[in-house]
Structures are given as C-alpha cells and as structure tokens.
Amino acid sequence: MKLAILSRNAKLYSTRRLIEAATERGHEVRVIDTLRAYMNIASHKPSIHYKGEELEGFDAVIPRIGASITFYGTAVLRQFEMMGVFPLNESVAISRSRDKLRSLQLLARKGVGLPVTGFAHSPDDIPDLISMVGGAPLVIKLLEGTQGIGVVLCETEKAAESVLEAFMGLKANIMVQEYIREAGGADIRCLVVGDKVIAAMKRQAKPGEFRSNLHRGGSASLIKISPEERMTAVRAAKVMGLNVAGVDILRSNHGPVVMEVNSSPGLEGIEATTGKDVAGLIIDYIEKTARPNQTRTRGKG
C-alpha cells in the first residue's frame, strides 16, 4: 500500500514509529508536512499539491494533526477524503474531538460517564455555575488548552470566582468541572484501535500537581483496566467516530468518567510503558480496513 502521514516533523517519535511499522510490512510511506500541502478544490478533480508536485495514488492517510493547526489540517485531510483516500481518522471526527465542549455534549447524549461539567458566558452566573458542579474544589479548563495547559484547580470558591472572572474578562471560553478527588491525581490513558483497547497505562501526577500529563512531569505505569473501563473507552472513541483514539479516564466513586478523547495520541509513553507495538497494530488495522472511497461520518455532526 502507499501511505501518507500528515505530520509537521518526520523525526517525532510517533511519526517515526509509524514509518518503521509500515515499512517493515512492505508499504511505501511518505511524510507530508501538513502546512506545506495546498489544494485545488474543483468538483471534477479535487487535488493536493505539495512542494510543486501533485500528490496522487495514495491508499490511506494517517493524520497526525497538532491541535494548533486543526483548522488547516482537517481541510487537507478532507481533500484526501474527497479524492477517495482512506483516512485512519476522519476529518469530521477529528474536528468533533478537538472541540472540548462539543465532544462532552456528544458523550453525554450517548450516556458515557463524565465529570459534572458547567459552561457559562456571563460573569453574573458564576456563583450558580460553581454550585452546579458541587462547589470547591473544582477544575477550570480553557476550551482551547492542550497537554494540561490552561487547566486550573481552585481549592476555594473565592479562588474559583477570581479565576473565572479573569478568564471571562479576557473573553476566553472556559468550562468548569467537578474535581474527582478520589482519583488522587491519576488518570488512565486507554489506546483504542478499531473496537478494542490495545494498550492502557496509568498516569500519575508528580507531588503537588494534579495534572497527570507526561509533558508536565507525570509518571506512567502499567495498569489492568476493568471491563467497564474498557467498554467506556471503546464507546467514547465510537461516539467521536474515531478509529484510533487516546481516551483519558478517571476512576471515580460512581464508576469510570471520561476526561478527554484525543484523536492524535502520542505513542512514545504508551509503547515504553506497555512494551506493545502500538504503531504496528495501527498499521495492521489500516491493512484490514482501508478501502477506496470509504469515508463516512459515523454518528451525527
């Protein structure tokens, strides 16, 4: 097969591993810098150009689109879809998962467990918003934040009011969530491929920190997940319409709750922690499922 990987940097661990896994299986791979691809949007023959040449003949495309380039990256991916190329994750599914509020609303509609979450626009509604999620301590999140940036734990209601007023004053979009104290600063990253959790790890925040992201100094360890956690992760990925997803789950007193569904999960931490060939399993999935003109948006909007 001829595979395209949309990635800004071929040397990144995840991109490199996908290249290795595909090459080992005899596939031809080309890394395309997403921001250097440009499009001819024509109804009779949509095309993508890259550094002066027209791209054609690809069987599948693997999007590794960073959050900061979601708009342009999904436009490029959509163009591949219009050309009949099989996308590992579809453009609509990526856009859906990148919108934190929209993704939580979709998960809630399908009955997937979530932390109590509030969203408001007016500073006048702050006191009721705080009580809606059970009061302090609570977590405030910027909707545009990634890798733990723009996430604040407020220990008191006074602190929460101050932070909310500051964010609202800056016209930032924020949501407020209950703080799951019993999780103890740990979450579970489940790597879903197709309809299976192929690997899972526990991420533990460093002392004095509540964000467990490995980028923020969190540590990772192997974990055995329950059938309920496994089912929750697979359902969350399915609701988003993602074939490959990193689903972040917290263990709460009322069962597993989904924090986030990531459409471009990093492979380094989970491969190192579990010893599994995650990149290889992703390529295997493409081999089994890739067909031309197969793009369909699963689920609604």
Task: Report what the structure shows.
The chain has three domains: 2-89, Rossmann fold (3-Layer(aba) Sandwich); 97-112 and 182-288, D-amino Acid Aminotransferase, Chain A, domain 1 (2-Layer Sandwich), CATH 3.30.470.20; 117-179, Dna Ligase, domain 1 (2-Layer Sandwich). By secondary structure, the chain is α+β, with helices and mostly antiparallel strands. The strands form four sheets. It has a five-stranded antiparallel beta sheet, with helices on both faces. Strands 2-1-6-7 form a four-stranded parallel beta sheet, sandwiched between helices. The chain has helices at residues 13-24, 70-82, 91-98, 100-109, 126-132, 157-169, 227-240, 268-274, 278-289; strands at 2-6, 28-32, 37-40, 47-50, 53-55, 60-63, 86-87, 117-119, 138-142, 151-154, 174-178, 186-193, 196-204, 219-222, 244-252, 255-262. The model has no long low-confidence stretch (mean pLDDT 89). Strand 9 (138-142) and strand 10 form a beta hairpin. It starts with a strand and ends in a 12-residue tail after the last helix.
Shape: globular
**Could you tell me the strand content as a percent range?**
25-35%
Strand order of the largest sheet: 14-13-12-15-16
The share of residues in helices is 25-40%
**Named CATH architecture of the largest domain:** 2-Layer Sandwich
Total of DSSP H or I helical runs spanning 4+ residues: 9
Q: What is the makeup of the main sheet?
A: 5 strands, antiparallel
Q: Residue ranges: pLDDT <50 for 5 or more in a row?
A: none
**Structural class category:** alpha+beta
CATH topology of the largest domain: D-amino Acid Aminotransferase, Chain A, domain 1
Q: Spell the H/E element sequence.
A: EHEEEEEHEHHEHEEHEEEEHEEHH
CATH class of the largest domain: Alpha Beta
Radius of gyration, rounded?
Answer: 20 Å
